[in-house]
């Protein structure tokens, strides 16, 4: 019968690198030129929720991102799907009368619906949460038995930073030595209890989508576009100008405060965009940080810092 549908839903938070991955030694397999370390946010905030479904009545693989259909033609999606399919195991649900053999998985199509509860592709590591969630959900659906290390190496082929989002707490992406990427995996360094009063505050200076992906886009356009120099000039005024101003204010505010204390209270970091990520050593420091931010950037001020806290709003009280 073509009537059955099997579904799995997973939720994966994004991660913020404290030691960044930047630069690839192999673009196809996404192999980095350095190890990186990140903190995974707690699952309530900045996370992706992905449902994957399989049914004999589906005639092709399809995906919807935030409710809009999205092409799966890209190599990164294809690679993740292929890797998971090749590891699928027999599935039996006697109650529902469903039996899928390892071989049959190869010919069954999937439908994927994914939602981000935060701006997509705005330099807030949406692809990290997205690919980690996709790979994890597909692996559960297809009864894949491999461990998280192996799943991390598959998520890595979707988006490098995604491999670290399969773990809570602190994760390290080991660059590995092999050409085939088999040892380029993420491991958990410490779980979420290790530093449980650490607070991460993200100032969403801009939720606009990045104009290029953090990877090939930039380099490709530098190499192939005759307009790239011109573009560089105009984007710096139209897009980045004000937002980086917001970022610089945040940097100087944090630095000034840290200098006035015996030990630094807050660290700051940026990924591929203008949004400032601040890491407070504890809740007290986080509350003081927010007071300062709200003083310097009242909501809807010119700096357009429309939102500050993604997370535990009780620290505002
Ligand atoms: O995983 P990608 O290709 O989106 O690159 C992410 C790069 C940074 O977020 C800037 C750094 C990192 O280690 O996450």
Automatic annotation (TrEMBL):
Protein task: Performs the first committed step in the biosynthesis of isoprene-containing compounds such as sterols and terpenoids.
Name any one GO molecular function.
diphosphomevalonate decarboxylase activity
> Which residues of the full-length protein are shown here?
5 to 321 of 384
Species of origin reads Rhododendron griersonianum
Q: Which reaction does it catalyse?
A: (R)-5-diphosphomevalonate + ATP = isopentenyl diphosphate + ADP + phosphate + CO2
One of its GO biological process terms is: isopentenyl diphosphate biosynthetic process, mevalonate pathway
Q: Keywords in UniProt for this one?
A: ATP-binding, Lipid biosynthesis, Lipid metabolism, Lyase, Nucleotide-binding, Steroid biosynthesis, Steroid metabolism, Sterol biosynthesis, Sterol metabolism
Q: What is its EC number?
A: 4.1.1.33
Mvd1 C-terminal domain mapped to chain residues: 200-235
Highest taxon listed in the record's lineage: Eukaryota
Descriptive protein name: Diphosphomevalonate decarboxylase
Family of this protein: Belongs to the diphosphomevalonate decarboxylase family.
Keyword Metal-binding found: no
Ranges where the Diphosphomevalonate decarboxylase-like N-terminal domain occurs:
13-186
Q: A GO CC term?
A: cytosol
């Amino acid at each position: 019968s073509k009537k059955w549908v099997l579904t799995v839903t997973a939720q994966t938070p994004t991660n913020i690198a404290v030691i960044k991955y930047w630069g690839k030694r192999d673009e196809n397999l996404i192999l980095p030129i350095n190890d990186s370390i990140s903190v995974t946010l707690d699952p309530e905030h900045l996370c992706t929720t992905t449902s994957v479904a399989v049914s004999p009545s589906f005639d092709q693989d399809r995906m919807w991102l935030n409710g809009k259909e999205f092409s799966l033609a890209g190599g990164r999606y294809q690679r993740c799907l292929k890797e998971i399919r090749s590891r699928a195991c027999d599935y039996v649900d006697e109650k529902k009368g469903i039996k899928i053999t390892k071989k049959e998985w190869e010919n069954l199509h999937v439908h994927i619906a994914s939602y981000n509860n935060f701006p997509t592709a705005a330099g807030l590591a949406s692809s990290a949460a997205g690919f980690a969630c996709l790979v994890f959900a597909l692996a559960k659906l297809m009864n894949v038995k491999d461990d998280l290390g192996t799943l991390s190496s598959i998520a890595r082929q979707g988006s490098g930073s995604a491999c670290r989002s399969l773990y809570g707490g602190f994760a390290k992406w080991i660059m590995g030595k092999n050409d085939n990427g088999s040892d380029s995996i993420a491991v958990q360094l410490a779980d979420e209890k290790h530093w449980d009063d650490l607070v991460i505050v993200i100032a969403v200076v801009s939720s606009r989508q990045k104009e290029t992906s953090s990877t090939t886009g930039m380099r490709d356009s530098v190499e192939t576009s005759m307009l790239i120099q011109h573009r560089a000039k105009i984007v710096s005024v139209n897009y980045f100008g004000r937002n980086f101003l917001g970022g610089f204010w945040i940097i100087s505010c944090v630095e000034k405060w840290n200098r006035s204390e015996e030990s630094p209270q807050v660290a700051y970091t940026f990924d591929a965009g203008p949004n400032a990520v601040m890491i407070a050593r504890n809740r007290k420091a986080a509350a003081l940080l927010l007071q300062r931010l709200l003083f310097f950037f009242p909501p809807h001020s010119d700096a357009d810092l429309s939102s500050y806290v993604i997370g535990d709003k009780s620290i505002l009280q």
